Recover the amino acids of this structure.
């Protein structure tokens, strides 16, 4: 019996093994092509090659590509063979080694649509194509000679270990080229690659011609334009130049991390990392940092506004050139006029007089485009006439002098500051599109009957609207009056309340926050749009939101409601008119310096809020992301801790990864990095770092400034720790200079000692939040703390690295 079952088991193992061996081959040869659902998988199971249809592809077109097989659950192509020539039926298409030894893709009609195109391949019998664990597809002869490899023909992705560079013999420069839109791998407008002239730097190009970004030349350590790309270990990023080629390559310090660099459809280069626990990719850094700095990101006449969604809009009198693409997020076609210009190009004059032909419309809030053509004009009227005289002139501005622009305007941007009046831009439109001056005469022809019917229709619509609004306002009033209870809002109501998410308050962790106003004189609210948190199911999300909604304390920001429908998750918080602590502390001239009194109260209040989180509610909540950005101030400067409970909403491990990646590193306790278990003491550490910043009024991490001799000035927490630990030192030197020493000496002494205790490396030495509150209140005395060992180590040699790491994480938090 036992023997029989063993034999059966053995048979089963052999069968399974045989199957795996038979189907999961890693090679394509003249005798084994792939088509339909058949794929080949690299030996270690890292990558898979086969036919696929990209997510978001509406045409059911298929491509041959390579994607991650192991670990990455989303189909993420890293290379595509037939980018521009999809096949429609993979079952009757074939990827095979052809008679001349080339790897060829034959479509359903039997036509070759893609080939590896090696001129002197070989007899097909001696050639195989193999997919490797590095993601490289290699066409090689029996004797091992490599004829062709996919890594030398990258599409939009640069994988670790791959050389991206220049073949000095052929002059061919490899470049990443963005997809056209996210569902179509056809080559798009943006490319990223090494300088074809052979200098050791990267360029980003638009339309293969316009160079709009450069990394600066690699100096062996960093790219001057991308200081955050430096690393502790030089082997991470490498430039190699020899007689035949020059190239860059990069590797990851932690081989278990899955990461890739892509030339994104948006026009940004993005380094992404796979988060296994969340089942999705997260962006580690991007260039250019600002989406609006991408060349022609909104196309001709499109106006870019980083703070709105969508970030491209058309100015008044214009509409998207291609509505469908615009909706899909492809703004490259830009905007066109509602009605064509009347100007007659052959004579440079409007069909009729100017009033009936073209006119100019003020484009408010748009900053002046670059490279104007100057013109002679002594008044705004003259300037306008100068522009209207040429049909190619599309805009003018008359500030201190007359400036004209010709042709399509690219890179229009929303103005950052409101400098209305001086630099007003006037865009040329058909007079029909300019209000008031518009079609005065045609109006006469509009029949009375149609006016009457429009009137009747609008009355009906109005009545219906008022009716619906009343219903809706009831829901909102309930929200306001119920106080304690959470309200489940409709997504559309919140969209309206935030004017379509137009006023961004900040881009905190886990999503952006927008200001909103509940209708009918309702309260101001802050609406947080959670991003990329689909790992927690709808039901769990609602449960967790309810638990968080119950947590109420004078020093915690109150959650008033939420909305969860489909993928969109919104949280509604009370609005804090004085913004966040970082603005109050580091806002520069815009924010008057907080008095010591206010600072001490803020420190105490934030500590009490954290204490309540740790010990006051039923389940202990670790905040995990304490930093000045997450401490908000109400009208009376009462501090309120924001963004707590996120770990519940997004799953604990996810929050951990996120904090490691995007939380400002200066606030992270050593446990995060060393891998020790996370306890409430991580919040104590972060709080200590924030307390130092409250005292000094400067970012701990940003005070690396070179003095006259080029030396780095010292890291504030270290300076503070040294002063605190040496008896008899006057601590007033640590105080924000703007306060001119105006502080309660005893409070300052207590605060400095508490801060230093909080940032001890050993979590057991750190006080609890309860002790922190008691020490600050003066209820218990504070002993002299020791200097934390890691601060001491930091002072020895790694200062420069640390500055760059900080810049790196700052870049991260900006880009995310
Ligand atoms: C679908 O096909 C049309 C025309 O062939 C093309 O313009 C469009 O970009 C394609 N869309 C996608 C998502 O592939
Ligand atoms: C393909 O099959 C033929 C005959 O079955 C055999 O002679 C040849 O070696 C095979 N080629 C490869 C590359 O396996
Ligand atoms: C490369 O060098 C040539 C000649 O020196 C120069 O004209 C060209 O602008 C350079 N190209 C780039 C991209 O720097
Ligand atoms: C891109 O460049 C080509 C010539 O290199 C030009 O014909 C085409 O109009 C350009 N595209 C845009 C959108 O300007
Ligand atoms: C450059 O190419 C030649 C001929 O292909 C080869 O012999 C030589 O080893 C190559 N040099 C380097 C540094 O790879
Ligand atoms: C129209 O005006 C432009 C700019 O002033 C000029 O370059 C062009 O030659 C003129 N065309 C005709 C047909 O007059």
């Amino acid at each position: 019996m036992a023997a029989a079952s063993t034999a059966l088991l053995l048979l089963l193992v052999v069968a399974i093994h045989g199957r795996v061996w038979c189907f999961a081959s890693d090679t394509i040869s003249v005798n084994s092509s792939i088509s339909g659902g058949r794929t080949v998988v690299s030996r270690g199971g890292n990558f898979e090659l086969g036919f696929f249809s990209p997510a978001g592809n509406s045409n059911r077109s298929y491509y041959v590509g390579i994607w991650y097989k192991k670990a990455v659950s989303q189909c993420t192509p890293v290379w595509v063979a037939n980018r521009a020539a999809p096949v429609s039926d993979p079952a009757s298409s074939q990827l095979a080694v052809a008679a001349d030894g080339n790897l060829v893709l034959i479509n359903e009609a039997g036509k070759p649509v893609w080939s590896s195109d090696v001129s002197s391949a070989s007899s097909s019998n001696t050639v195989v194509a193999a997919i490797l664990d590095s993601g490289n597809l290699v066409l090689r002869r029996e004797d091992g000679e490599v004829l062709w490899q996919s890594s030398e023909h990258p599409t939009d992705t640069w994988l670790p270990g791959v050389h991206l560079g220049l073949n000095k013999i052929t002059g061919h420069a490899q470049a990443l080229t963005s997809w056209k839109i996210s569902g179509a791998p056809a080559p798009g407008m943006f490319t990223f690659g090494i300088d074809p002239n052979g200098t050791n730097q990267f360029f980003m190009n638009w339309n293969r011609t316009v160079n709009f970004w450069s990394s600066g030349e690699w100096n062996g350590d960093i790219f001057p334009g991308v200081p955050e790309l430096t690393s502790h270990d030089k082997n991470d990023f490498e430039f190699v130049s020899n007689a035949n080629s020059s190239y860059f390559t990069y590797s990851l310090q932690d081989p278990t991390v899955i990461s890739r660099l892509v030339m994104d459809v948006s026009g940004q280069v993005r380094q992404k990392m796979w988060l296994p626990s969340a089942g999705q990719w997260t962006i580690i850094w991007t260039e250019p940092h600002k989406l609006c700095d991408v060349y022609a990101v909104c196309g001709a006449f499109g106006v870019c506004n980083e703070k709105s969604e969508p970030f491209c809009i058309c100015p008044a009198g214009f509409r998207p050139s291609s509505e469908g693409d615009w909706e899909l997020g492809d703004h490259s076609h830009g905007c066109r006029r509602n009605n064509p210009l009347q100007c007659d190009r052959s004579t440079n004059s409007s069909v009729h007089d100017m009033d009936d032909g073209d006119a100019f419309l003020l484009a408010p809030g748009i900053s002046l485009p670059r490279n104007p053509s100057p013109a002679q004009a002594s008044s705004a009227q003259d300037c306008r006439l100068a522009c209207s005289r040429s049909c190619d002139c599309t805009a003018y501005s008359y500030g201190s002098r007359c400036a004209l622009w010709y042709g399509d305007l690219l890179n229009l941007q929303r103005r950052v500051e409101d400098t209305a009046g001086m630099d007003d831009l006037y865009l040329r439109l058909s007079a029909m599109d300019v209000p008031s001056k518009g079609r005065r005469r045609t109006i006469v022809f509009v029949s009375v009957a149609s006016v009457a019917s429009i009137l009747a229709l609008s009355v009906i619509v109005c009545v219906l609207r008022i009716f619906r609004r009343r219903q809706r306002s009831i829901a909102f009033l309930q929200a306001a009056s119920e106080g304690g209870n959470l309200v489940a809002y409709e997504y559309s109501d919140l969209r309206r309340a935030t004017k379509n998410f137009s006023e961004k308050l900040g881009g905190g962790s886990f999503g952006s926050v927008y200001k909103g106003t509940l209708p009918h004189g309702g309260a101001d609210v802050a609406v947080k749009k959670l991003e990329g948190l689909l790992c927690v199911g709808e039901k769990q999300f609602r449960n967790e939101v309810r638990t968080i909604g119950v947590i109420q304390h004078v020093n915690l920001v109150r959650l008033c409601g939420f909305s969860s429908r489909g993928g969109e998750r919104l949280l509604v918080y009370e609005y804090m008119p004085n913004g966040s602590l970082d603005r109050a502390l580091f806002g520069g001239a815009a924010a008057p310096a907080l008095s010591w009194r206010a600072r001490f109260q803020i420190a105490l209040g934030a500590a009490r809020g954290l204490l309540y989180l740790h010990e006051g509610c039923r389940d202990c909540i670790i905040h995990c992301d304490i930093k000045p950005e997450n401490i908000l101030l109400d009208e009376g400067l009462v501090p309120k801790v924001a963004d707590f409970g996120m770990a519940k909403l997004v799953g604990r491990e996810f929050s951990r990864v996120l904090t490691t990646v995007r939380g400002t590193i200066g606030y992270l306790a050593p446990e995060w990095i060393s891998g020790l278990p996370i306890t409430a003491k991580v919040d104590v550490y972060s709080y200590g770092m924030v307390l130092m910043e409250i005292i000094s009024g400067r970012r701990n991490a940003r005070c690396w400034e070179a003095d006259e001799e080029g030396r780095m000035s010292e890291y504030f927490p270290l300076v503070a720790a040294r002063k605190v630990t040496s008896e008899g030192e006057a601590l007033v030197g640590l105080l924000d200079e703007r306060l001119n020493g105006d502080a309660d000496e005893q409070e300052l002494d207590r605060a400095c000692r508490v801060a230093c205790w909080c940032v001890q490396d050993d979590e057991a030495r750190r006080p609890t939040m309860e002790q922190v509150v008691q020490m600050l209140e003066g209820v218990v005395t504070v002993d002299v703390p020791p200097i934390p060992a890691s601060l001491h180590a930091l002072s020895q040699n790694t200062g420069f690295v640390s500055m760059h790491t900080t810049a790196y994480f700052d870049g991260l938090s900006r880009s995310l």
